[in-house]
Specification:
Chains A, B: Keywords: Lyase, Thiamine pyrophosphate. The structure is a homodimer of 802-residue chains. Chain A has 802 residues and is an alpha/beta fold. The first copy, chain A, contains 25 helices and 22 strands. Chain A has 3 domains: 357 residues, Rossmann fold, CATH 3.40.50; 210 residues, Thiamin diphosphate (ThDP)-binding fold, Pyr/PP domains (Rossmann fold, 3-Layer(aba) Sandwich), CATH 3.40.50; 177 residues, Rossmann fold (3-Layer(aba) Sandwich), CATH 3.40.50.920.
Chain lengths: 802, 802
């Protein structure tokens, strides 16, 4: 199994293992200290009640195993001079990760007040799970982390995201047996089918079976080695087992196994990189570590089994203040690590142990890969004007908006081919979403067998497709967090699958904004297409525009929502989003052939404003207020609004209509709520202080109310949007069912504008009749009436004077 | 491998197989017909353009495989007289499922206008993916389905949910290789660790590897048999392979394999049921079917490979109207099934084929298990008064609300132990969420090894814990859809993991409400606890109250949101939810010791109203309007509101305060929007027409605005809620960071009530000072100031006159 080119594993030095055991004890000591102490960090005096925190919070169970892995990775890094980052899946491994970063000096470099001495150690202990301090899991605050340990499921997919296009990096990823029960993690193992040994790095999964969750055994922990082996061989890995509880034996086994794993990784890479042929999928190694939960902690507390059981999960000795016996037990537990043997008088790690940590940026806590903004290079962006749709007159051109975007992304891929820092993710829908222009210059990446008749499939593709929104999202997060760029295109309804991942990424970004040492990373960009109004054929299960509601709950400086009404606006927004950082940009746009409204010049102006009056579409005179504002956000609502304007102008030529289109939804919020928000004055100059506003909106209408409820004219804003009335029907019928179609909008105007008289009443009756005619026609013919489907904007650019 | 007690597999009758092949052809014919035709269903005339639908929608690729499985299951059902239901995972298998239900007569029984003759066949074809018709996937409209095929990932978890406590049922579950890539599906295979062969039924997974998704090969489809076998052996199954494309060979192989699988199932069950010992986890069989995508369809279209490739995924011949060549190709494809050999002159299936379908409720399409409301028995509910907390005076008792609920659920479990129709799901958090009263009478179910030191773990438990919200949700959905009852308790923040599953279940319920033949099923009940205000210790990653925002987007007749402020109200709400049907009830309640406000009598009245004035808490005189309304929803907001009232009454004794508590959030909506909505008159009688309302709400404040924006007094409603300001701190500090604490609420009252003068200004300054003092104290001591933590309501029941 050993690589001929490396022989680090030939001998394992027992002296070094003994030092490593002491280093491990130091990390364990610091971990217990963080959970329990607020004073007396070195136990220079007998432990007193007041040394102990009043609220005991934190998680011990997983920590000694994490520390064990850490010291063994350190050995390999030094022996082989490799770049490794450590992804800590187990949710509450915070004390261990923080302890190690402090031991190798990074913590004090970043947070100088937590210095490398007794006082620093005291602060390190005190701040853990303490008000004003740090969370109990690996978090943005933790040096070396790109992975928040709170919600479980995403460690391995983040690891793969980090490894793509990072040929010299090894991502060590610890997966707890609790987390291994989650769906996203169970699917993540298959990421090896997308990792190319030539130009990607390696992921070394370390499945840590300590047997228990909060209050239960784990599924994988209770499976036999045979079944576990079979499972991971089936997933395509070579599992290497390390099992036991005797520290000395375990150190020897782990060191040998780590060497074996790194030898395998290097030989796989060397072979693939030396060969001229496209690489085959390798069988990558993984480590399966069975060690006791709460290893080296108290065996029993109050007569109940703790070590190697779920009672070790959180705080093994639950009450210490006020309980002399527990205080003694805690002290003897901490002294069992022999702190005098580990730290000098000043509280500093003794030199022979300090020497075990790698130096500089080889320290996992100081790796620039784990602070991706440091490595981030701006994308080289093509000129989006090159992709502009020629719109000589509003509605005078037809285009598929996402196809134009796909061509733009094709050029993004070409321009950055050498940098290898852009990927496009999607759940098997890149072509379905009309982004297939990208396949002119790249393929879908695929490490399984490729058949001669396969299409745009290769080991080299920059497009990643897998039928799992979780994997798409997680890979992209890992890729961005390590300093690269990307886009995730998804069916609008099914983006809810990753609601919770979105939440966690938004939280990560919010926290990093207060950590100046974390450099900004590229924004996470979503294209939501195949949207609710054009899922008439797939039906109700595919119709849900609610993701943006979730997004709007997040901090204003993190999120943006864009509804470009046509291809040129979509191009501008795409270009813009790719230039931003530390944000989550959501773009909602259709893929179907649709009328185009704005020239590229107009699109630029409109998008920069975020919201604007479309003079050419309304007919208000220069010298008077309009009678009604017809507002719209989203491509189908815009189309229906303009068709309603046409109906109204023909029926009621004296009615003065203003058309407002909203691209950037956050412009509707007050300016003190969102940086893109309009001032009240600007809002009123667009939406009027007191005229009825008939607002056709892409999603659930409540969002518009929620964004505008503080505006003076809010009482007159009437929103038409998705009312959860979905079915299998035609595109226009979807609009009718939810009352955002041209007829309902025109009727709403007649109902809301006072004093329109008998002509209007008659027009309203005609519109109602049209709706009935439509329903009959659609049910008979299975498609929309030609007069609907073929409607075009008849007024050209000079609507106001037409 | 064969069971001695059954010998159905001894011989496979070639004549029968030949008939089955014809039955399969009939199903395939009907499937193609649904995708393409609106007339000429039996091809009695040469096919004309006008026979073909104008929009071709639907999915062929998966369908012939689904039909193949269907006919083979029919054989087994007849041969063995077993109860089987068919869960169709592949998203777009609609045409096949519908075809089979029509062939066995169920479709026409339920929808008599789609009769068993040529005219019925024409309607069957026409309605598919047609306006006013049916969706392209198995849906609520499809007889025999409990599983919507739109969003992928949940087929297998639904199958297990259906099998629990259904000892005589076999749930055949087809998993497509596309769906198999999703996270939830990848985790679902481990459900076998929770299935007890004695009192549960069996799940027969049929992994259908047809190799392709929309535009890509599949991961599992391209894996070798060796790796696939290893994977599923690792998951704990015995995989039985059926592979090929020659129909006759495949029929023989499939029939033999089906027999083998059913033999294994019966022998596992017989052995376990005969034994007195607790059963060990069996190695259940599964079938791995490799067959061509688009099997029996066109091999090539326009020179491009279609059969056995992803081009067969949707409509293999994409344009037929107007393309003579394509029309001919379609006709010859359809005639290749030889319709004259399958259907008589009237369009009815010929008798020798009709005889192949099972009869009556043995037909999978007519199984009562797939229309669970038919089998549903009401729960036997204990008297919740038995669990009431004795509240002699408001705030005079302290209790953990969810603990009281746990004791109530314990009694629910006991009373229904014999019916075996209630389960409690949770991601390893039942005890953490203080529901551990249930462990007095039951255990966690667990089919892996059980150690002597394990706690409340047995093969017989009614509590299901797994670290996967997806599995908890999916099992419960499957359990409810087959006529049983349950509760899902979850950390509030992590329920977002199943946002999309919630969406799909809500859609299912909405559609079934318009299908009178579907009998109502029990509601899906959530308890969201360990909520945002008490995740101070776990930090920001665990803090998210936004699930209810998603829920509020759904149709009013499907969803309910409850925020009981204490234990007695929680008991009433729990009892109420368990009596409802066809709904999704979300209850948000805390688990920490907290003051109790209402006696059980008061709780009943309050919960029945949904919202009410707490006379004892305010101090408004009988004969005048209050100066301010202090409203609250949620346990922590209620506590902080009452503490703010206390502060204000002491500082400003003349200020007239009304306290309003909201239990049922939907009461805030207008009555035309939600059945629980208050009339405007009632709303004003509670919230006043014009006084300031300071509303402390549990979640994101926007939801309250969205629910109340149509109310006349909306402009005066000022909501304090979660502002996305989370961190690791103390409970009270969480409230302070988000400004829903007593001091901020009291300050808000002073700011909003006009004319309070200098005394109020001074009080405001004192409250500000208190906030600073709090922050200093918390950062020094790591816990809340005693005066905050120990505050109790000082006025008793006679606040108004105190």
């Amino acid at each position: 199994m050993q690589s001929a080119t490396e022989n680090a594993s030939a001998t394992i030095d027992e002296t070094e293992l003994a030092l490593m055991d002491r280093y491990w004890r130091a990390a364990n000591y610091l971990s217990v200290g963080q959970i329990y102490l607020m004073g007396n960090p070195l136990l220079k005096q007998p432990l007193q009640f007041e040394d102990v925190k009043p609220r005991l919070l934190g998680h011990w169970g997983t920590t000694p195993g994490l520390n064990f892995i850490y010291v063994h990775l350190n050995r390999v890094i030094r022996a082989r001079d490799v770049d490794v980052i450590y992804i800590c899946g187990p949710g509450h491994g915070g004390p261990g990760m923080v302890a190690n970063t402090w031991l190798e000096g990074t913590y004090s470099e970043i947070y100088p007040n937590v210095s490398e001495d007794a006082e620093g150690m005291r602060k390190l202990f005190r701040q853990f799970s303490f008000p004003g301090g740090i969370p109990s899991h690996a978090a943005p605050e933790t040096p070396g982390s790109i992975h928040e340990g709170g919600e479980l499921g995403y460690a391995l997919v983040h690891a793969y995201g980090a490894a793509f296009d990072n040929p010299d990096l090894v991502v060590a990823c610890v997966v707890g047996d609790g987390e291994a029960e989650t769906g996203p993690l169970a699917a993540s193992w298959h990421s090896n089918k997308f990792l190319n040994p030539v130009h990607d790095g390696a992921v070394l999964p370390i499945l840590h079976l300590n047997g228990y969750k909060i209050a239960n055994p784990t599924i994988l922990g209770r499976m036999s080695d045979e079944e576990v082996r079979s499972l991971f061989v089936g997933y395509g890995y070579e599992p290497l087992f390390v099992e036991g509880s005797d520290p000395a034996t375990m150190h020897r086994a782990m060191a040998a196994t780590m060497d074996q794993a790194f030898d395998r990784i290097r030989s796989i890479q060397a072979e693939a990189r030396a060969s001229q042929a496209a690489p085959a999928r390798p069988c990558w190694p993984m480590i399966i570590l069975r060690s006791p939960k709460g290893w080296t902690g108290p065996k029993e507390v109050d007569g109940k089994m703790v070590e190697n059981f779920w009672r070790a999960h959180q705080v093994p000795i639950p009450t210490v203040r006020g309980n002399e016996g527990h205080l003694k037990l805690l002290e003897s537990w901490m002294r069992s690590y022999d702190p005098e043997d580990l730290f000098d008088e000043t509280g500093r790690l003794v030199p022979e142990l300090r020497a075990l940590a790698p130096a500089g940026t080889k320290r996992m806590s100081a790796s620039p890969h784990a602070n991706g903004g440091v490595l981030k290079r701006d994308l080289r962006l093509p000129d989006y004007h090159d992709h502009a749709i020629d719109v000589t007159t509003p509605g005078g051109a037809t285009a598929e908006a996402t196809r134009a975007m796909g061509n733009f992304l094709r050029d993004v891929i070409s321009l950055n081919a050498e940098q290898r820092n852009f990927r496009l993710m999607g759940p098997d829908e890149t072509a379905s979403n009309r982004l297939d222009g990208v396949f002119d210059v790249t393929d879908r990446v695929w490490m399984e067998r490729i058949e001669p008749y396969d299409v745009h499939l290769s080991t080299e593709g920059r497009v990643m497709e897998v039928l799992s929104e979780h994997l798409c999202q997680g890979w992209l997060e890992g890729y961005l967090l390590t300093g690269r760029h990307g886009f995730f295109s998804c069916y609008e309804a099914f983006i809810h699958i990753v609601d919770s991942m979105f939440n966690q990424h938004a939280k990560w970004l919010k926290v990093t904004r207060d950590l100046p040492w974390r450099r900004p990373i590229a924004s996470l960009n979503y294209l939501l297409t195949s949207h609710v109004w054009r899922q008439d054929h797939n039906g109700f299960s595919h119709q849900d525009p609610g993701f943006v509601d979730l997004v709007a709950n997040k901090k204003a400086d993190v999120v943006r929502l864009y509804f470009p009404p046509d291809a040129n606006t979509l191009l501008w927004v795409t270009d813009h989003c790719l230039k931003t950082y530390n944000r989550i940009n959501v773009i909602v746009a259709g893929k179907q052939p649709a009328p185009q409204w704005l020239t590229m010049d107009e699109a630029e102006t409109h998008c920069e404003e975020g919201v604007g009056i479309w003079d050419w579409a309304g007919n208000e005179p220069d010298d008077a207020e309009p009678d009604v504002v017809m507002a719209c956000a989203g491509d189908v609502p815009t189309l229906e609004t303009l068709a309603a304007v046409d109906l109204l102008r023909k029926a009621l030529p004296d009615l003065k209509i203003r058309v407002v289109n909203v691209v950037d939804l956050m412009a509707l919020q007050p300016e003190d709520r969102h940086p893109h928000g309009l001032s009240d004055r600007d809002f009123e100059s667009i939406f009027t202080p007191d005229k009825p506003v008939i607002f056709a909106y892409h999603g659930y209408p409540y969002l518009i109310h929620r964004l505008t409820y503080r505006r003076a004219n809010h009482v007159n804003i009437h929103v038409h949007g998705f009312q959860e009335e979905g079915t299998t029907t035609t595109p226009f019928d979807m609009a009718v069912l939810n009352e955002i179609d041209r007829f309902h909008l025109a009727i709403a105007v007649i109902d809301r504008v006072p004093g329109l008289g008998a002509v209007a009443a008659k027009a309203k009756q005609r519109f109602r009749d049209k709706l009935l005619e439509h329903r009959r026609y659609v049910r008979e013919h299975g498609e929309d009436m030609p007069e609907i489907a073929d409607w075009t904007w008849p007024y050209g650019r000079g609507a106001a004077t037409a």
